[in-house]
Amino acid sequence: MFDPGTYSIAYYFATFVAVCIATWWYCNNIQRHRTAMLNSSAGEEAYSKCTSPGCLRCRSNSHARGLMLQKLVKHFHDNNLPIGAVQRVIKALQVEEEDLEGVRHPLQQPTVLYLQDLDTKPVWTDSIMLEQDVKTLEKNAEILQSEFSAIIRENGWKINNTPTGQWKALYLINQGVPVQETCQKCPKTAKILGKLKFLMNDSGFGNACFSVVDPGTHITGHYGPCNIRVRCHLGVQVPGGCAITVGGRRLTWTDGRCLLFDDSFFHEVHHHGNQKDLPRVVFMVDLWHPQVTSLERKALNFLYPPQ
Known about the structure:
By secondary structure, the chain is α+β, with helices and mostly antiparallel strands.
């Protein structure tokens, strides 16, 4: 005979076990990636780091936040702009790092700026507002691939520090500054960039470049400077054995397709190929987070201008 009491006990017991398993998995996953972060940080000591005090992506913002806030208030007052419309930016300048514990995802630690109350996800698999920019890039993928092939042996590539292999980039926009020489060599790519609605072209956080990772390269885990952008990688040349891990999710690129992610989450790149394999090539472009308002963009561009 069916006993409702027995059924209820079994149901609640099963639910309790499921919750315990889920909690264990989450805590174990976070701890595993925190360990990876520590290991990556230790590994970074083996090779050089950027020490430029003017580098927006490397410096701490804590020393200047009070002064920046004063300048922002004056700038908005002088230009008759409503300072009340940028309260999230003001809060970002006022908040202390320790106050963000429990507010941010544990694997998200932007090095310069954290704007609260934005949609937070390590990987952007769907966004109606960014869809048009994604379509523009994917529709013109062959053009970008062709211009990349024409400039691969040109001068101007920036070599980034990695413990193994080589990672280099050729910028069309570098921290908000157009690189005219590259734009002239890749005029069609530059024109395509101009069609992107959410392009960060007036911000020190904005970049656009061809990014090349050689076989055997490991770009160790790190954080981007802010959470106000969505980083887009368009696959230009994607051999096997390549992957990027963002916030604990392992992802792979596809030729001619865009991969969007929030680089304020802990992320790293591997190219496990051998010397006979092709480099991994993506066209990287930074887009505004779609929930950053136009007035917030003005404030952020004033605070973090092109470098």
